[in-house]
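#random but structural
TW: two for the price of one
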Amino acid sequence: MKKKCNYLLFMSLIVSLAACSSNDGDIEDNENPVIACQDDITINIDAISSGAIVTYDTPVGTDNISVVTTMVEGLASGETFPVGTTVNTFRAQDTAGNTTSCSFNVIVTRDTPSGNTPYFIGDDPTPSDKKWTKVENLSDEFDGTTFDDSKWHRDTATDGFNWLGRPPGLFESDNVTVSDGNLNVTTEKFDTPKIVNNISWTHGGAIVRSKALAGPGQFYECKMKANKTVMSSTFWLSFKQNCNTGPVRKLELDIQECVGRVHSGTAAWAEDFANIYASNTWRHNRDCDTEFDKSRQKPAKTVLSEKNNERYFVYGCWWKSPTEILFYLDGELTHSIINPPAEFDLEGHITMAIETYDWNPIDDATIFETGSFDDLTTKYDWIRTWKLEDQ
């Protein structure tokens, strides 16, 4: 009996020791790893760069036992970061599955183009052996408060086209001013209709044309904010035509043509013309232009997510050759016209016309009576023309 009791006591001791040994091996790890990321990194690059190489100290996690650090999202140190914000996130995980994460941003921002070259963002199409030179008599920064009559026509009686406007919108020179760094073309509703050339005009706009001639091979651009009315905001090239002295072809190169507002009476094809970059090439019908018996056009457009009157947009056109015309929006190529309805090999005049259209007619809205100067005015911050020269 004594031996049996000793045996049982011995076995109990062994079981107890084994249990203690097992419990010692199952120590629970509830401690999270530690990892810290640096502050955000901000990099500025020039207007025609697409990204920047960025280096940083890669975060390394620590733990009471062991830890593995992994990049969850972002780009590694030494890689090229694109324009915009890249979020870099790192996670530290220990053998027990505990995790801790940290993040920081790499923010790459393009500088605004300097104004010493065309307004290009990202890709620069300039030929490697060429440089752009500003054409001063076709460019204007509109500083000060004086309209430069040496560069621009604003009177239809002197510009050589003799176009008074498209009824019911009459072009009037007193609607053109310069102030606050802008060329302003203001719309209006007349208190009483004006009768000019036996036509009744109810509203006023204006047209501005360059005195110098613009030709192929050059780059034309403007920074423009549209008015908020049904009337237009435009930037284009107009060409003179004469059946007796030539040229007999009546061409038109529309760089941008939009309106400030559309409504229920707007033609269906123009329902997006308040938020559009609309370009076109025309060969208008003329009796002496016998090659065609009707007007021909070849348009191109980019529909915008913003209204043309919400901010200034930069509209650019590289009239690259008589058969190739490229269009840029805020420095980036958006659309092109290849093989227009005629060879665009003539010289024309830079034109800004604020006019009325029958496809977006004057309606009953009261903006002409209640709108502010800013609401009623198309503003041009600048107009610039560039030509290519050898390096």
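TW: number two ↓
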Amino acid sequence: MSNVKEKMTEVIRSQPEDASYEDIMRELAFERMVERGLEDSRDGRVISNDDMEHRIHYGRNKMD
């Protein structure tokens, strides 16, 4: 992402004219979550599906 303001403007402009404040904020938050996930993946901060299943089953939240 070259410019945060440009990305935010793009997300806002992609919303329908009748979008509520909450709709727009939800889309901006979703965009940020996706961007963070991609950054984590690029930086090698990932875990396997098996590890995730184990954490879900045993209630372990933190990545060690």
